[in-house]
Amino acid sequence: MSFTVKKMFQLALLAILIATPITFTYLNIRCDNLSKDIAIALNKTLNKRISSVLHLPENQPDAKSMHELVTLVLSSRSLRSVAYFQNNHYIYSDRNASLHTPISPSLIERLKKDKLPLLYRKRSSLNQVDELHLVVKGTKGFYQLFINAPYMDDWLTNADEYLRGYVVTNKGNILINNKKNYLFHKSYHSAQFPFKVIVGAKSSQVLLGICALSAFIFILCMLIVLIINYIQTNNFSFKKDIDRAIKNNEFIPYYQPIVCNKTHQIIGAELLCRWLYRHARLISPNQFITKVESNGQIKPITLHLLKQLSIDKPLIAHSNKDFYVSINVTLSMLNDPRFVDDVILLIKQNPTLQQGLVFEMTERENTTNAFIKLDKIMQRFRTLGVRWALDDFGTGYSSLSSLKELNFDIIKIDKLFVNSADTDAVTSSILNNIASLGKELQCKLVAEGVETETQLNTLKSLLIDYTQGFYFSAPTSRCDFIEFKTEHNDQILKTMNKYANRCVALKYHGPTLNI
After folding, report:
1. Is the peptide bond before 117 cis (omega within 30 degrees of 0)?
2. DSSP single-letter state for residue 512
3. Are 142 and 85 in contact, with CB atoms under 8 Å apart?
4. For an engineered disulfide with 481, which of 77, 255, 387, 418 has Cβ 3.0 to 4.6 Å away?
5. How far apart are the C-alpha atoms of 395 and 415, rounded to whole Å?
6. Distances from the Cα of 146 to the Cαs of 52, 123, 174, 251, in angstroms?
7. Where is the EAL domain (predicted)?
8. DSSP letters along 97-161, please?
9. 206 pLDDT exceeds 80?
10. 472 has pLDDT over 90
11. What are phi and psi of 403, to 5 degrees?
């Protein structure tokens, strides 16, 4: 996907369409939560102020009471003044211990009409300062608290960095901050005091939020598209690189010897794929086999390896008609009629592949539901001299059912069992059962992954026919394999001849040589 102007515009439009409902939903939730939090905080502040004055005297205060009252006011940032009145006259305040000033007519009117506590905003008749007036009932008279209105305005303004709000009485009169025109808002009514908190967002704030979120979504979408492009490009480049490598014969066969446990001779080999990248460096199969199996390119690679095997086989078999070479095939490969036809044609055109060729069917795929079709495919290859091996027996799908329904010539025992056969009693017992099963089915048994002499001796004791692993040799190129095979088999023959000559000299025929 290339970033044309049209596509970028469409991506930006998509980002806006996604960001708009998200922004509105988010701001609604924020406004709702913030209005509730402000109301709770304001309730707490007012209750604290009320509880601090209710114990004050309801008559002319003494010096101690006055000192306590003055200290209370001076120690508070929000409380500006406190006064007490009875019978519509102030008795005292924090600034004067003896007052006989009448309360304002408006306050008298409020006391008659409104429920206590009273809460409103106006200029005080005592000090002519804009304040919040909180009036609560005492035993005989009333306490009037004058709260610093500008301080409360600042407090509410700084309650949130983004959202703004104001507080009004239940009648809609302003208490804290001025009214604002919001695109939308949320309100919360106090259950204790006659006010409600309104928090909202202006059009400019909503637009800013939508723009910010749209930009984030746009950038995120761009990154996702770039990542997808990168993955697709890499996959395309990989497939293209594989096609180039097949064309340039960069996939080469490596051979790992299979040794007979009875004669100790190399009687076969497994063909393994290596990638000689640009004929410069060797790449191991674990770096590419999984990918080429998943995208289907394993099929042309396998055909290429079989063509190379038709050339190599006479050289590595060296006139040994019993020598065989095995190569892996998967269920998906066998289910491809075109691939099957191509392989059959290749075998027919190359007599060297019509004898001593074994296909190892891997158990990475479930064969349970494909037995009938698979058996027919296997029979087509059998008519051309191909034998069949079940690879990694015991670790894949439906091993026993595969053996029951399909006629295999060879069972390859996975190295998982070989590695712990000499140390784990359970694994040793399983291996013994596999060996018995192989004999019962008249299948040759090949143990993979043999690395130590102890493992080899254990397998010999179980009468496993053949072994394969690093104990003998790692997979090697054709030339190295031929050299190793020749040296190995010659050494075995020399050892056996030496033993036979010794027996003749002593006129004694000893037990069968066990090397």
Report:
1. yes
2. P
3. yes
4. 255
5. 10
6. 13, 10, 16, 92
7. 235-489
8. S---PBPPHHHHHHHHHSPSSEEEEEE-TTT--EEEEEEEE-SSSEEEEEEEHHHHHHHHHTT-S
9. yes
10. yes
11. -65, -35
What's the angle, vertex CA 82, arms to CA 166 and CA 191, rounded to 5? 40
Give the C-alpha separation, 484 to 488, whole Å. Answer: 6
For 503, the token pair is 């027996």
Residue 376: count other Cβ atoms within 10 Å of its Cβ: 9
Residue 130 sits at φ, ψ, to 5 deg, of -70, 120
Tokens representing 19 are: 């960001």
Q: Any idea where the domains of the chain sit in the sequence? A: 5-206, 248-505
- Written as six digits, the tokens of 509 are 């025929």
496: which 2 tokens?
Answer: 């056996």
Question: May I ask the CATH architecture of the domain 248-505?
Answer: Alpha-Beta Barrel (3.20)
Which two structure tokens, joined as six digits, stand for 100?
């006989």
pLDDT tens for each residue of 32-72? 999 999 999 999 999 999 999 998 999 889 999 999 999 99
Sign of CA dihedral 161, 154, 156, 171: negative
Per-residue model confidence as pLDDT tens digits over 331-362: 889 999 999 999 999 999 999 999 999 999 87
User: Which has the closest alpha carbon to 245: 295, 300, 286?
Assistant: 300
Q: How far is CA 293 from the centre of its chain?
A: 24
Where does 248-356 have alpha helices with state H?
Answer: 289-295, 298-317, 331-334, 337-349
Distances (CA, A) of 459 to 241, 291, 337, 413, 455: 42, 34, 39, 11, 6
Contact 305, 327 (CB under 8 A): yes
For the chain, give the mean pLDDT: 87
Quote the tokens at residue 141.
């008279």
**What count of other Cβ atoms lies within 10 Å of the Cβ of residue 129?**
13
Residue with tokens 């790992």: 256
